[in-house]
From TrEMBL:
It is found in: Cell inner membrane; Cell membrane. This is sn-glycerol-3-phosphate transport system permease protein UgpA. It comes from Neoaquamicrobium microcysteis. The chain crosses the membrane at residues 12-32, 75-96, 108-129, 156-180, 201-220, 266-287. One of its GO terms (cellular component) is plasma membrane.
Length: 294
């Protein structure tokens, strides 16, 4: 039996953890506690008076048709963004892994878009598909398609989904490439010798071995779609037209900072936090069971 290893300095580990704990406390636990506190209050826009109303803000929010519309938009948006971003990134990673010459150049070019800020990414896609001056919008209109995301809600949703997915593809690509490089080539070669085709080798060997990375990216992309896409939606559609692209995080901003309904906005942020925590817990509880850690 090996002797138990003990760290001689009892204070140093806590000192090393202290900066991270302070950052998490200031930027997560403190805002979360303030949101919980404000969600049970009714405040005037200038903060001069507040009244305790209990769960009245939550009842009003959950009975608001606009909020239920935002829930529906968020469900469609988050599922579409996560699936599209991960599927395209996996395809690009598989193709880039096959390239012999210039492999590093292609990988670098595919990673660069992740450095673009969400608001900038949104403006880029808005300029390309703007119905009055966008190059791709002109091509769509010339082919007979009535493209106008500023007036048609389904087209606006499609535009923000593609823009948000494009922004996240580079992040997913980086992890998928790392996962593909970690797969022993002998397994693939053995399957090829046994007569397995390229498609069968991918689905029976490569993709199962990428399961841990795929699960990790599923959690990250879900959180990204819920929170980090605010800048894209704000830059491209502003939640319109007619609230067709108003997601939960954007409604929190619109009600709190534009309409100055502070109590309802705080209640919405608490509900959003609970939804994301619940989704993450469900993913770890049920989806992770299908993940094989080899």
């Amino acid at each position: 039996m090996s002797p138990r290893v003990t760290f001689p300095n009892k204070i140093l580990p806590y000192a090393l953890l202290l900066p991270q704990l302070v950052i998490v406390g200031i930027f997560f636990y403190w805002p979360a506690s303030q949101a919980l506190y404000q969600s049970v209050l009714r405040e005037d826009p200038f903060g001069l008076r507040s009244t305790f109303v209990g769960l009245a803000n939550f009842r009003r929010v959950l009975n608001d048709p606009n909020y239920l519309n935002a829930v529906q938009n968020t469900a469609v948006f988050s599922v579409a963004v996560a699936f599209l971003a991960m599927a395209v990134a996996l395809l690009l990673a598989v193709m880039a892994d096959k390239i012999i010459k210039g492999k590093g150049f292609y990988r670098t070019m595919l990673i660069w878009p992740y450095a673009v800020a969400p608001a900038i990414a949104g403006m880029v896609w808005l300029f390309m598909f703007n119905p009055t001056m966008g190059t791709f919008a002109f091509m769509l209109r010339s082919s007979g398609y009535a493209w106008d995301p500023l007036l048609k809600g389904d087209q606006a949703m499609l535009l923000v989904i593609v823009a948000a997915a494009w922004k996240q593809i580079s992040y997913n690509f980086l992890f998928f490439v790392a996962g593909l490089q970690a797969i022993p080539k002998t397994l693939i070669e053995a399957a090829a010798i046994d007569g397995a085709g390229e498609t069968k080798r991918f689905w029976t060997i490569v993709f199962p071995l990428l399961a841990p990375i795929t699960f990790f990216l599923l959690v990250i992309n879900t959180t990204y779609a819920f929170f980090d896409t605010f800048g894209i939606i704000h830059a491209v559609t502003g939640g319109g037209p007619g609230k067709a692209t108003e997601t939960l995080v954007y409604k929190v901003y619109h009600d709190g900072f534009v309409n100055l309904i502070l109590g309802d906005s705080a209640a919405q942020s608490v509900i959003l936090m609970v939804i994301v925590i619940a989704l993450t817990a469900i993913q770890f509880r049920y989806v992770e069971k299908k993940v094989h850690y080899g």
